[in-house]
Design brief:
With about 130 residues, the chain is of the alpha+beta class. The longest helix has 18 residues, at about 65-85. Strand 1 (about 30-35) and strand 2 form a beta hairpin. Helix 3 crosses helix 5. About 40% of the residues lie in helices and about 20% in strands. It is globular, with a radius of gyration of 14 Å.
């Protein structure tokens, strides 16, 4: 069973590389919004056993001053991605294709998890159409 079928979000599926983050935000990244989420994404080629979909979440401190609130929003976004990442992975045609995504929170309001998940599904569907 692949990671997409198990509905997990492993350490390898989280973007930690500063080089990849810079490439995502400065060069080849494309962007779209489903308020309150903005996603910057880029298609890339993978080697070895890298994941097909990798992500990071950013919740700016200017929107939520308390770390508890930022962490709650990040948990909601990660959970929504974990449950729906198969939308992206099923539409990648080549075995060496992958996508890197950065989700950025755009407001100082808290949303229920169901609404965050609806917006995530909308974004992932739109990304899969662009790939």
């Amino acid at each position: 069973m692949s990671a997409a079928e198990r509905f997990t979000l492993s350490k390898e599926e989280r973007i930690c590389s500063k080089k990849l983050i810079n490439e995502l935000f400065t060069g080849n990244g494309r962007s779209m919004t489903a308020f309150p989420l903005r996603v910057v994404f880029m298609k890339r080629t993978i080697v070895d056993d890298q994941p097909r979909a990798a992500m990071l979440v950013s919740v700016p401190k200017r929107y939520f001053k308390h770390a508890v609130d930022r962490n709650r929003v990040k948990r909601q976004v990660r959970e929504a991605f974990r449950r729906n990442k198969s939308i992206i992975t099923q539409n990648l045609t080549d075995d060496h294709d992958a996508v890197a995504m950065a989700f950025v929170w755009l407001t100082n309001e808290k949303y229920p998890s169901s609404e965050v998940e609806n917006r995530m599904v909308r974004l992932l569907t739109r990304i899969s159409e662009c790939l």
